[in-house]
Design goal:
This protein has 465 residues and is of the alpha/beta class. The chain has eleven helices and 17 strands. It has two domains: 410 residues, Alkaline Phosphatase, subunit A (3-Layer(aba) Sandwich); 45 residues. Helix content is 32%, strand content 16%. Strands 1, 4, 5, 6, 7, 8, 11, 12 and 15 form a nine-stranded mixed sheet that branches. Helix 5 packs antiparallel against helix 6 and helix 9 runs parallel beside helix 10. The longest helix has 25 residues. The relative contact order is 0.21.
Amino acid sequence: MRHLPHRRDLLRTSALGFGWLALADLLAAAEPAPRLSSDPLAPRPAHFPAKAKRVIFLFMHGGPSQVDTFDYKPKLTADDGKPLPFPKPRVVSSQTGNLLRSPWAFKQYGQGGAWVSDLFPNLAKCVDDLCFVKSTHGSNSRHGGALLELHTGSDTFVRPSMGSWVTYGLGTENRDLPGYITICPTLTHGGVNNYSSAFMPAVYQATPLGNAGTPSDRVGVPFVAGTTPRDQQRLELDLLAELDRERVTTHGHDAALESRIQSFEMAFRMQSTAPTVQDLSKETDETKKLYGLDDPATANFGRQCLMARRFAEVGVRFVQCTHSYKWDQHENLKADHGKNAREVDKPIAGLLTDLKRRGLLKDTLVLWAGEFGRTPVAQGKDGRDHNPHAFTVFLAGGGVKPGISYGATDDYGYYAVENKVHVHDLHATMLHLLGLDHTKLTYRHAGRDFRLTDVHGEVVKAILS
C-alpha cells in the first residue's frame, strides 16, 4: 500500500521550491516593461512574404451546428432517432438523447461540389471562393472558455486577442485609424477579454464600435468630431508629451502613461478620417442592396459587413463583425437557426462578392467561425448541445485554396477524425498567411515569452494556395 507524505514532511522537502517561486516573481518584477516606440502601429515587415494583408473575422456567437450548415451527414438522416453507436464524450455540457437528423436539405454547389444546406442559399453561390475546414476542434465545451480560446488561444487565462497579435506583429497600413476594430462585440462570455491586448500595450487592443446590444446603424467611433479647434488640440497633446518626458526623467519609464498618450494621438488623427469611413451614404444603392441593407432582417449584420469592407479598404489590419448571441440552440433549432442564417447569409455573400469585384479578396483573409459546433444527438425535443470536438469554419481569400473542403468528421459529425485542425492550428495558419511565423511572434511578459499559439500549433499547409 502506498503511503502519502505527512504535511510536515511535504513542507520540509518542498521548502526550497518556495524560494525559487519568490525569486521568479522578483526577477519578473525587475524586468522593465517594453518601451513603446513613438509610432507603435507603424507598418512592420513580416517574417516572410505574405499572401494576406488584413483579416475580416465574422464571428457567429453561440455555436452554429456543423451538421445543419456545411457538414452533410446522410447517415445521420438514415439513423434519425437511433442511439449514437459509439460513446459520447466523457465531459458533456448536459444530457442528450438519440441522433437527430437535420431539418434542412443539403445540395452540392460549385465546381467542387461543396455540400451546403438550404440555410445558406446565397453563400451556396460563393462556394468556389470558400475553403471549408470541417475538422476544427477545441478544448472547451463552455461558451466562456471556448470564446477565449478562439479569440486568444487560451481558454483559462487572459491573453492578448488574435487581432492584438496581428497588429503587434504588422502594425497597420492606415496611421489615422486603429489597427484593430471590432463592430458590435459581445458583452458576455468573456466580454472585453475577447478583444483585449491583455499584458500588451493598450494600443494593440481593439477599438469597439458599439456592442452586441447596439443596432449597427447607431454604432461608430464616439466623440470623434470634437468642437475644440485642431491647433488648440495639437498644443494640448504637445504639452502632454512634454510632461511625459519630464516624468520619465524623474520617475522612469511608464508604459501605462505612454499608452494613454498614444490613444490621445490616435483620437486626434481619427477626426479627419473616421467620419468619412463610417459614412455609408456615399455607397451606391446597388451595393447597399448587395449587403441586404434594404431588408430589415439582414440590414443589421449587413451594415456590419459593409463597414468591415470600408475599414479593410482603407488599411485597418483586423476587423471583426459579431452576430451575437444567437446561435446557441439547445431548443427550437429549426426556427432559430433558420432566423439566424437568414440574418447573415446575404450580408456575408455580399461581402465576399464586393471584396472580389474590388480586387480586395486576394489579399484579405475572411474567416467565418463560431466558438464550437453542436451535437448530432438531440437535446430535448429539437435542440443540440455544445460540441467542441468537431465544427466547421470557412476561410476565403488571402492565400487559401478556394473551392475545397479539408478534414472530415465521423459518420454523424460528432468527432473530427481526419486531418484534425485544432484552434491553435487555425491561428498558426492565419498568422502564416499574414507572413508571420507563429513560433517567432512573441511578447515577453513576467519573465516568459508568450505567443498566440502558446506551445502548440501547426500550419495547415494543405489549404494554402
